[in-house]
Amino acid sequence: MTVSRKPRSFPDGQKLRLWGVGWALALTFAAAVLAAGGTLYGLVVLLDFQKIDTTAKLDAKTLFDLVKLSFGVVAGAGALVALVVAYRRQRVDEAGAHREATRLHTERFSQAVDKLGSDSPAVRLGGVHALAGLADDAPDDSLRQTCIDVLCAYLQLPFTPDPGTDPAHQEEHHRYLAFRKVRHTILRLIGDHYRRPKGTHRSWQGCDLDLTGVTIDGDIDFDGAEFSGGTVSFSGATFSGGAVSFDDTTFSGGDVYFGDATFSDGNVSFDLATFSGGAVYFDRATFSGSTVPFSGATFSDGAVYFSGATFSDGAAYFNGATFSDGVVYFSGAMFSGGDVYFDHATFSGGDVYFDHATFSGGAAYFDHATFSDSTVSFREATFSGSAMSFGGATGAVPQGLLAAVGTPPPAGVTLPAAWLLSAP
Q: Are 325 and 348 in contact (CB under 8 A)?
């Protein structure tokens, strides 16, 4: 198994660098002299001294004060030397502690990776949990990311498909189920780590998740997870044969990729999810033979791309969703052979584009949607053999909609009377 990142020798990614003692002392003394001189000058200015009396003679008291001042300077110099030495010792001790922690981490890491390569599913499960624990305890972010990368890489590995429940293949079927359990355990641990509440140890936040091309073929729960500050990629992933839930999940402050993903023969839910402060890509994704709800989802302060996506032979729900202060692109999307619901959705303070989208062979519902302070565009969209309803919708007519559907609208297309009256 190849790991793409090498462990760092120090948290900042560089080896420990310390100036020579001579340079450190010289710079420290220079800084001390400048500080003392600045302080003395400030006192002279504040006390408004005009001139130093040069006629005074040196008496015993003044001589004693000068001697004390000399000893004070020597003591201060010694304190500066001790400070520099103590600082260097502290830095060396920290570097040594980090090297030791890295060495122990590397040993545990090697053992965990060896377990992942075992022929025994139980041993592999142990390796999965060991790597997840190592990611939590890693001495720096680079080592933590390495552990996460290995877990993600395991999910990307090809696997033998289920041979079926035929008695002749019973042993292979049981083995398939056992290794499938290992993959699902990794996905469960990812969900557990990304839904930890604030104030707890959220070590994985801000790390990257590369799940490109993975197959998710069972019930997986990402409910309440928070993906922020990192890159999460489900590009080209296949969601099939189970229920995958991203309900109430937050995608913010980073890039999330579902581009070219396939949602089929299952149920993937994004109900009440929040997409904000980053970019989320569903471009060229295929939603077919499955139900994909975004009901009550919030799209704000970022960009969400459904450009070129295909919605067919299933149902996609955006009912009650809020599109505000961001940009959502359905440009070039194809809605065919399935139903899409935008009823009771709110389009306000943001831009939503259905330009060049194709609605055919299915139904699209925008009933009671609200269009206000927002740009919603259907320019060059195509409506053919599809039912579409904007019944009860309020606000300004979306740009290009009347030209796309034609006036009067064809059978199966329902528009508010106020929109029809505004037609040229």
A: no
Residue 164's beta-bridge partner residues?
none
Q: What is the pLDDT of residues 141-193, one digit of tens each?
A: 888 999 999 999 999 999 888 888 888 888 999 999 999 999 999 999 999 99
CB-side neighbour CA atoms (13 Å) of 303: 10
Can you read off the two tokens belonging to residue 53?
């009396």
Between strands 226-228 and 250-252, the pairing is: parallel
- What's the rounded Cα separation, in Å, for the pair 216 and 258? 13
Cis peptide before 197 (omega within 30 of 0): no
- For 78, half-sphere exposure in the C-beta direction (CA atoms, 13 angstrom radius) is 6
Residue 333's CB is within 10 A of a number of other CB atoms, namely 27
pTM of this prediction?
0.75
Q: Which residue has the tokens 């060991």?
A: 130
**Cα separation, 254 vs 230, whole angstroms:** 5
CB-based burial, 153-189: b 16+ in 10 Å, e otherwise: bbbeeeeeeeeeeeeeeeeebeebeeebebbbbbbeb
DSSP 60-90: HHHHHHHHHHHHHHHHHHHHHHHHHHHHHHH
Residue 206 tokens read as: 């801000």
Report whether 328 contacts 351 (CB < 8 A). Answer: yes
- Which tokens sit at 144? 């933590």
Q: How many CB atoms lie within 10 A of CB 348?
A: 16
Q: Which of 103, 109, 95 is nearest to 10 (CA)?
A: 95
* CA separation for the pair 251, 225 (Å, rounded): 9
The C-alpha atoms of residue 235 and residue 229 are separated, in whole angstroms, by 18
Instruction: Write the single-letter amino acid at 176.
Output: Y
What's the residue count for the chain?
A: 424
Q: Helix/strand/coil (H, E, C) string of 344-367?
A: CCEEECCEEECCCCEEECCEEECC
Q: What whole-number distance in Å separates Cα of residue 179 and Cα of residue 121?
A: 6
**Spatial contact of 307 and 333, defined as CB atoms under 8 Å apart:** yes
Q: All domains of the chain, ordered by start, with CATH?
A: 1-8+19-206 (no CATH), 211-421 (2.160.20)
List pLDDT tens digits, range 323-371: 988 899 999 998 887 788 999 999 987 899 999 999 887 888 999 999 9
Closest by CA position to 143, among listed 108, 117, 94, 97? 108
